[in-house]
Known about the structure:
By secondary structure, the protein is an alpha/beta fold. It folds into two domains: 15-80; 102-299, 3-Layer(aba) Sandwich (Rossmann fold), CATH 3.40.50. The chain contains twelve helices and eleven strands. It has helices spanning 17-28, 34-49, 53-59, 65-78, 84-88, 109-124, 143-151, 164-176, 220-223, 228-231, 240-252, 268-277; strands at residues 15-16, 62-63, 90-93, 96-99, 133-137, 156-161, 182-185, 200-205, 253-262, 281-287, 293-299. It has a seven-stranded mixed β-sheet, sandwiched between helices. The chain has a two-stranded antiparallel sheet with strand order 1-2. A two-stranded antiparallel sheet has the order 3-4. A hairpin with a 2-residue loop joins strand 3 (90-93) and strand 4 (96-99). Helix 1 (17-28) runs parallel beside helix 4. It is elongated.
Amino acid sequence: MEDFRPRLPEYQGSVEFQDLRTRVTNDLLPLHSTEAADTLARLFIGHASGEDWLGLITRRPSFGPDVVAKVGEMVQRALGHEPWQYILGEVDFAGLQLKVCPAVLIPRPETEEMACMARDILRERTTWLPAPRILDAATGSGCLALAMKRWFPGAKVTGTDLSEEALTLAGENALRNGLDVKFVHADLLRPPPPGVQGNLHLILSNPPYVRWEEHQLMQPNVLEWEPHSALFAPDEDPLAFYRSLALWGKQLLVPGGMVLAELNEALGDETASIFTAAGYLNVGLARDFRGRIRFLKASLLCG
């Protein structure tokens, strides 16, 4: 594939702090607003130098050739629409430092919002504490599973995914954060494998839910870099993962157990109807911080 990224003059030699910040910001302006470009400049310079931003703006150091070259490489990658999270190789999520790569979706603020919703649900269900049993189906980076284990150290948490690369990364994230979470290879479109135990209190999931017809609305940094297998639902049945998720819940949840899932805002009512038809009660939709229908909550029985 031909590379259409603009080729920048090499970042080389020693450069003063403000001069480097200005150059990075200017080089990124073809793709970003001034504010966004400056934010990326701060991220790249901080990551390449290994120093926090407050220390940098206080000291305003001169950077040597190694740091300058690293920053230049990051800028070049960003001009190819590569997400900054992949460039840095990590992202903050619910107080965790998680490794990310193109094998997994980048955890979004909406997904962190769902994690907080799950936390609040568990805190209200005092009979489930201190050891709730939780499943994160389609775990990706492990972000939801690991957030639950961080907030509820006594919880028994399992994460599943079809991608072996994702499971490997999720395991690395568990080790990195000192959290004991079990990760199991599983296809959400098939029955739960033996490694996924029942009597669960809560199933979380952020499954693929984007319809291919919506791909033209997506930004290049998402469409060209993030795994399509984790983004797009089957063309023939965009709600296939939710039909299966409802079945997993009926097989794995205790009475009163809950499913909490992220969904396509254009298919909220259709998604809810799947769980209602499957016999769930208290089926409801919730909006994200942007005001969009984004989450489904459903109880197996009135809890």
